[in-house]
Write a structure and sequence with these properties.
Elements (H helix, E strand, L loop, with lengths): L4 E5 L6 H18 L17 E7 L2 E9 L9 E7 L8 H16 L5 E6 L3 H5 L4 E2 L4 E3 L2 E8 L7
């Protein structure tokens, strides 16, 4: 993917336009497209340690994910709300963004593995990035999910 600007911000660094755009993209995909009524605003966005990763192209938000600190969702850090605008799907953008999110998580919390709650139909996508299923699938907001773990890279001492 070319000419994408990746912007990493904490909640208090987001301007009102960025906040609106990321919430709109998340609601458009997770609530409207997936027809899943759930509480999208969960207060985790505002946590001082949450990292928001925005993919901007020609001034427009086209992808987003957030990285949660250990203890927010799981004992480990977590990557979630991984979303790409309809108009930019199928171009490898989600994988590029996920790799960047993994690097940011490893830089912020190098002593931890990364745990995610993945939609089950994306199992192969996450496995292709090193995640392994952990435990049985479960329903979350009516959508099958599976917990997955990415082992932290070995330390070289």
């Amino acid at each position: 993917m070319t000419d994408i600007s990746w912007i990493k911000k904490h909640f208090d660094e987001l301007d009102i336009e960025q906040l609106y755009d990321l919430l709109k993209l998340r609601v458009d995909v997770f609530v409207v497209q997936q027809q899943c009524a759930y509480p999208e605003l969960d207060n985790k966005d505002k946590d001082s340690e949450t990292i928001h990763l925005l993919g901007i192209q020609q001034g427009k938000l086209i992808s987003y994910c957030r990285i949660l600190a250990p203890g927010q969702s799981y004992p480990q850090p977590s990557i979630g709300r991984v979303v790409v605008a309809d108009s930019h799907r199928g171009q490898g953008l989600a994988g590029e963004m996920l790799q960047m999110a993994i690097r940011l998580s490893n830089l912020s919390w190098p002593e931890y593995d990364i745990k995610i709650g993945a939609q089950e139909h994306l199992l192969l996508f996450y496995q292709s990035h090193g995640f392994s299923p952990e435990g049985p699938s479960y329903l979350e907001d009516g959508i099958p999910h599976v917990d997955m773990i990415l082992q932290r890279p070995p330390t070289t001492e």
